[in-house]
Amino acid sequence: MSASAFDLYKSCAFKCMNIVILRSYLTISTADVNKTERIEVLHNTEIITRRYLQIFYNATNRWDYFADIKSISIVPFAIESIAKAASDAKGRGVKLRFVTEITKDNLYRCKQAMKIAELRHLNGVRGNFGVSDTEYIATTIATPIESNLTTIPHAIYSNVKEDIQQQQYVFEILWNKAIPAEQKMREIEEGYVIEKTEVLYGSENVIGAELLFFSEAKSRIDTCMDYTRPPLAVEIEPIRKSFIEAKSKAVQLRYLTEITNDNLSSCREMMKIVDELRHLDGIKGNFMISEREYLAPTTSHDKTQSATIIIFSNVKELVEHQQYVFDTFWNRAIPAELRIREIEEGAERTNIEVIPNSDRARKIYLNLVKNAESEIMLMFPTTNAFIRQEKIGAIELCKQSIRELDIKVRILMPTHKSTEQMVQNIREQQSNIDVRYIEQTSGTQATFLVIDRKASLVMEIKDDLKTTFDDAIGLSTYSNSKAGVLSYISIFENLWKQTELYEDIKKAHEQLKNHDRMQKEFINIAAHELRTPIQPILGLSELLISKTGNIEQYKESLDTISRNAKRLSRLTDDILDATKIESKSLLLKKELFNLNDVILNALDDIILSRDFNGENVRLLY
Fold first, then answer.
1. Residue of 480, 492, 483 whose CA lies nearest to 455
2. Assign residue 39 a region: left if phi > 0, alpha if psi is -120 to 50, beta otherwise?
3. Residue 223's beta-bridge partner residues?
């Protein structure tokens, strides 16, 4: 998978000494070889062979040879006289360097060449030329008919200094581009893959590289392309065919792109070819990865044309890195079917984004509040969170939205003395802002915002002691997913209802406290009111009992009055004691009493009652 050495050769040649090239055409001749400077076109094999021998014999320091896969088999090794001349040149200390394309077919000849010269490999070699210190010769490319191993159809010879310098410059570029022959031979003989990274130019080379990439893939091809590439993959028949052939060999094909209205039909076609196609917003750049290779065509300015530059690499670390990049993108992408349905139904794109940067989170947060149209729901887990976001202008933006669009704002937050006045001012200034208090818990460490019941932003708090928004906020998550937004709405509404229940319970508690207070007051009043008539009853009954004379006949009744008055007195004392028990202020006093007296008093009460007739009364003990 290399750029054509022939193309490289052409580009180098055209860069150098255009004047010399023009002069070459003006001075072509068959002049005598003893002339000082000349350029000749040679047609006879014998003459060409003699000229090769002449160049070897005249070489003093260097002899550089560039040849295609056919020529390396015939020159200078198949012709015995040239082979001997090359060997003699090496014996004189001439440095011999050969560049060719090493293949299985010419491997034996290349090994022979390595015995007398330093040999390097370059993919796609086309053309043949040799250059020494003072001379240059270029033979034509043999056609299939002319490819006899001892045939050289015709050649161009030059000893013009400028020509020599130009060809030496071209050879050095090709030499530096080539790799040691040992590496290529090891690759051929042992299956060892030489790691390399290279850039190829030209549409033909780009397509050729892609076709070779597909043909060499064994188990998988992962493709990541921008929105311009699916139409090309479908319309350029060789590329389309490569996908189909790879799939027929059980190569797993995953294709990732940005599906738009413009490439929708092409993406539908790709879904029939690849195993799975997914959509990811805003893809830039193009690359493909197989199990061993990485290929990255550039994006063409003309969306209807294929790329003209492509990067190839089989370096293991780079392939693994790009595979990781692809897998990351793939896991973030959505199925193509879902994206196509969104486009066809005109549905809003579902987007879930994790935002690690607090500065970006702040900008998204304020932008959401600013662009709210009907409702804002805000929940602050701590009072510090409320204070920080009031500082960055979030609350002021809520007020502005109310003034402009009359939207509804609901806020849940813990209560604290530091925010009481701020909340009071908000309530007084904006009737559309409803603030309710929730309990602050250590487990809740995220502020969340819901806008118009369509989008949510959840911001984790990494350090609540920080005074600035950027320092306190950790990861944030933005979502316009219906399911995700509804879950946060449900949380908010449940908490909102809990605050209503809390207020109802609080009111009920206050009512119970008032009822309890009133009950205690009633008991106290009742006890005192009962005690008031008891005292004169007791006093008068005691006075009557102490009298003599006819009063004796009423003594029994008076005793009953006195006894019941005492019972009434004890009852009022018990009522008062009950209030003391509830208030936990009762002091217990131990006293001695006569059980017989208690029983006799009870019997007296029964006997004196109106319903007593004296029958069936027994004392059991």
1. 480
2. beta
3. 255, 288
Structure tokens at 596: 């017989």
Nearest to 106 by CA among 74, 65, 138: 74
What residue ranges define each of the domains in the chain, with the CATH number in brackets? Answer: 5-190 (3.30.870.10), 197-345 (3.30.870.10), 352-480 (3.30.870.10)
Residues in the chain, total: 621
Reply yes or no on whether the pLDDT at 609 is more than 70. no
Residue 231: closest CA among 269, 186, 205, 198: 269
Phi and psi, residue 531, nearest 5°: -70, -30
**Within a 10 A sphere around the Cβ of 177, how many other Cβ atoms?**
17
Q: What are phi and psi of 427, to 5 degrees?
A: -65, -40
Separation between Cα atoms, residue 171 and residue 165, nearest integer Å: 10
| Assigned token pair, 288 | 């493909």
Task: Tell me the average pLDDT of the chain.
Answer: 81
Query: 8-22, 133-147, 193-207, 587-601: lowest mean pLDDT where?
Result: 8-22
Query: Which residues contact residue 492 at a Cβ distance below 8 angstroms, ignoring those fewer than 6 apart?
Result: 377, 379, 410, 412, 448, 450
Packing angle, helices 161-177 and 5-15, rounded to 10 = 140
Which candidate, 175, 280, 170, places its Cα nearest to that of 224?
280
pLDDT reported for residue 78: 63
pLDDT tens by residue, 174-183 = 999 898 999 8
Q: What is the token pair recorded at 132? A: 């020494």
